[in-house]
């Protein structure tokens, strides 16, 4: 699970995972994105892969250096086995069915859902907690049934904003504690410059491994390049600022 407050980059990180698996490794990926159009996702993949500023792809035709980068990146992106489904409010049964269809056409090695709060429950519940608990447990069953990793993004509530360092915790996952309980891995994103554009840590992002069922927890500081729709490793000689 990838969780963060709005504008911290959870969709960007999810799409980066999809790109890494589908483009760099050539493995089939299914990405459900009820909030974003297929074109928006394609632009973000191309921006990150070609290192082309996202707003250039959004507002104008590529020219000059952008056109050369676009031409070089397009064959890699075009042959990637990345299937994007933008169905509004799908339920887990629809996601499972799509996975099975992909298995008959060559397989699926990674399922990503961005964001889990946009999924529909299979039946009506009296409260939102019950709906999300069912969704969480159902996605866990899909992962076990298909034997593949399932990565979901989730929103955090406002609690981190009440803390001095705005440090997120797994208990901040919005509306339902079942996500924290069911997830094998919980990664929280924190970026100081979202709250303070003048922060000395502008451009940095902390990926906080807050839960890891089969390994250690910890923190990884990376660079966030929003204009290129990507997270990347910091330079080897870079010293993160505190």
TrEMBL record:
InterPro entries: DNA_helicase_DnaB-like_C, P-loop_NTPase. The keyword Thylakoid does not apply. SUPFAM superfamilies: P-loop containing nucleoside triphosphate hydrolases. Keywords: ATP-binding, Helicase, Hydrolase, Nucleotide-binding. GO terms for molecular function: ATP binding; DNA helicase activity. The keyword Hydrolase applies. GO terms for cellular component: cytosol. Residues 1-238 form the SF4 helicase domain. GO terms for biological process: DNA replication. It holds the Pfam family DnaB_C. This is Replicative DNA helicase.
